[in-house]
Amino acid sequence: MTQASPAGANARGRARREALLTAVTADLAANGLVDFSMRRAARAAGTTHKVLIYHFQTSELLLEEAMRRLRMRRIEGALTGAGAGGTLAERVRALWPSLAADDTGLRVIDQAIGLAMYDPQRYVHLAADASDLYVGPLVSLCPPDWRAERKRQVAEMVMATMRGFLMEWRTTRDESRIEAGLAALTRALDSEEARADHE
């Protein structure tokens, strides 16, 4: 019998890990965070919690990877909506429909932020890298001739503002407040872009 090469074994291990992460991410998207555990994840993935520990070490690390995958799905969808043309304000404004969509599979992301605020000691790891994941793509929407520092500052402002809009939308469904906020954000971004043009 021919023994598998280490490279082949590594490829199989990566494929198995990817399949497990995909299954756990799908369960998380469907059922949320509240009663998440390694045993629940194992049931969803059709394996044992020991296998998940082998591949991911802890439930926290598994959860972080699954949440990162869901956030990247949201970011990719939003950036597709933003398109490549128009002013910065127009591109940022175009992010909103994708962010606010009632995609139950992505609402767990908002749940993670809420839990991190409610119980930071237990859930802070769920929000730890969220800001960095969002800021990079938002920087890419800024005019290419802006200084890196200005791009970062504007991206941070947009991220914090959109997060606030999203919390408002999820809790009140008050379209008039969101529209007023988006109009103010649009004016601020137009002003920032005009100021940059004259520097």
From TrEMBL:
PROSITE patterns to which the protein is assigned, alphabetical: HTH_TETR_2 (PS50977)
Keyword annotations for this protein, in alphabetical order, are: DNA-binding
Stretches assigned to the HTH tetR-type domain: 14-74
Does the record carry Transport as a key word? no
Annotated DNA-binding ranges? 37-56
Q: Which InterPro entries match?
A: Homeodomain-like_sf (IPR009057), HTH_TetR (IPR001647)
GO terms, molecular function = DNA binding
Q: What is this protein called?
A: TetR family transcriptional regulator
Organism, per UniProt? Paractinoplanes ferrugineus
Lineage, opening ranks:
Bacteria, Bacillati, Actinomycetota, Actinomycetes, Micromonosporales
